[in-house]
Amino acid sequence: MKDKIRFVDYCTSTADGSVRFDCCTCFSYNRDTMDVTKNSSEYRKLPSVDELLRTEQIRQLLPRYPRSLVVEAIRDALRKARERIAKGLPAADRDTIIQFVNGFLTEKSKMSLRPAINATGIIIHTGLGRAVLSKRAIDALFAIAAGHSLLEIDPVTGRRSSRQKHVENLLTELTGAESALVVNNNAGAVMLVVNSLAFEKEVVISRGQLVEIGGSFRMPDIIRQAGGRLVEVGTTNRTRITDYEQAINQNTGLILRCHPSNFKIIGFVEETPLEDLVRLGRNFGVAVVDDVGSGLLVDVARFGLEHEPTVQESIRTGADLVTFSGDKLLGAGQAGIIAGREDLLRICRNNPLARALRIDKLSLAVLESTLRIYREGDPIAEIPVLAAISRPLAEIERQARNLARAINRQHIHDIQARVIKVRSEIGGGALPGQELESFGVALKSDRFDAEDISEHFRGYEPPIFGRILRDTFVLDMRTVAPHEARQILGCVQTLQP
Fold this sequence. Notes:
Elements: E1 4-13, E2 19-28, H1 33-45, H2 49-53, H3 56-59, H4 67-86, H5 94-108, E3 117-118, E4 122-124, H6 135-145, H7 165-175, E5 179-183, H8 186-197, E6 202-206, E7 212-213, E8 217-218, H9 219-225, E9 229-233, H10 241-247, E10 252-258, H11 274-284, E11 287-293, H12 311-317, E12 321-325, E13 336-340, H13 342-349, H14 353-356, H15 361-376, H16 379-382, H17 384-390, H18 393-410, E14 416-427, E15 435-444, H19 450-458, E16 464-465, E17 467-469, E18 472-476, H20 482-493
Parallel strand pairs: 3-16, 4-14, 6-9, 6-10, 10-11, 11-12
Antiparallel strand pairs: 1-2, 5-13, 7-8, 12-13, 14-15, 15-18, 17-18
C-alpha cells in the first residue's frame, strides 16, 4: 500500500483575536509517522511572538531596546528553536528562548568599532587600527571632541583663519621644508599633488614602484583618477636615470618616486637615487615628488633595523614635494602630509580637491599633539609605535614568562602555556622584510586545536588577536601592554571543555 500524505493545519488564537496558522506536513501509514508526529508536538510547545512579548522578562527589555529590535530577536530565537526540532532535538523551554533573546540584544547593542588587543606582534596592524596613540594625543582628542575649538578662527583678531596653521609650522620645523599641507590620508595627498601639478600631463614613474597599497588601491589607478597620464620607465627590477631622461618631454608634469613600503625586491636590482632624479628634474624644470609612505622622522637604525630614509633626508636631498602618512611610523592618526616648496603647495591649496580631502578637527588635534612630542618631548618613550619598536627584549621576555606562569597556575582544563622566541613585524606597509626579535606565549591543548583557541580569543570582550605558528596559538608580547596581559588571562579562564 502506497504511503499517503495528509496536510494538517494547526490554528492558534492570538491576543488580538486573529488566528495564527502553523502548517506542517505529517506522513501517515509509514514507519516515520511516530517521529514526525513527535516533532509536530515539539513545534506546538514553542510560544508565539505575542506570548513572549507578554512575559515579564521581555517587558523589562522594551524600555531599553526598540520594540522592533526585540521582536526581531524573538523571531530569531524561535527560528533557531525550530531548527533544533527539525534535527530531532526537543523544543527549547521558554527560559532558554528568553536567554537567547537577551544574548541577541546584547550583541546587537555593542559598538561595531570597539577596542581590541593586538597580540599578533605586528606593530602597525592595518586591520587593528594602525598606530596606537600617545597619551598626549588622546588627551588632545578628548579636549577637542568635548566642545568648541579654535579650528578655523584667530583668537586675537576674531577673524576666520586656516586649520592648517595648527600643524604647518611644526611640520616645517621638523622636516626642514619650506611649507606643508595636511589632508585626510596619503593616497589623497598623492592624488592632490598629481591633480594640481600634472592634470592631463605625464607622470613619470619606475615600473618597480607601481605599488598596490591596502584595499587593492593601486598607484597607477590613483594617478589616472587624478588626471595624470602614466608613463612607466625601466623594468620591474632595474630603472636607470637614462630611463627617466628619455621619457621627459614638453608634456611631462612631474617625476614621481614611490617608496615600495610594503614589499622588497632583492637580487639583480638597480634603483635610481633620489639625488639623481632631483638633478634631472632641475635640468628639465620638472618637479620631483617623493612619496615616502610611512612618515619616518627618526632613524630606526638605532633599534637594530636597516636604515630607512627619513622625511628630513628626502627634503635635504632636494625633493620638491614629499608625501607621507600620519598613522604609520609617525605615530599619529590618519592623515596625508605634503611637505616641500611653498610655490607648489600654494597650487595644491588652491585646488578645489583640497577641500574634499581636508583633514577633520579630531585627526588634526591628534597630529598636532604628536608633532609636539617630536619637538618638545621624547618620541621614543611617548609615541607607542616607536616605543614598541624600541622595547627592550628582556622586558618582553619577562612579561611573557609572567603570563605563562599565571596561565599554568590556573590549571585550566589541559591548557599549557610556554614561552617561545618569535619574530615581530613593523607592519602597515612600513620597513618591508625587516623583523624584530620577540617572545610569545604559546598555548597548546589536547581538547582544543589552534583554530579553536584563536576563535575563542576573538570572541572574547575585548577581542584578542594572536597568530598561529606550526599549529600552535601564539600571543606575541611585543604588542601587548601590561594591563592587557591580565585580560588575556581572563580570556583563558573562560575556555570551556
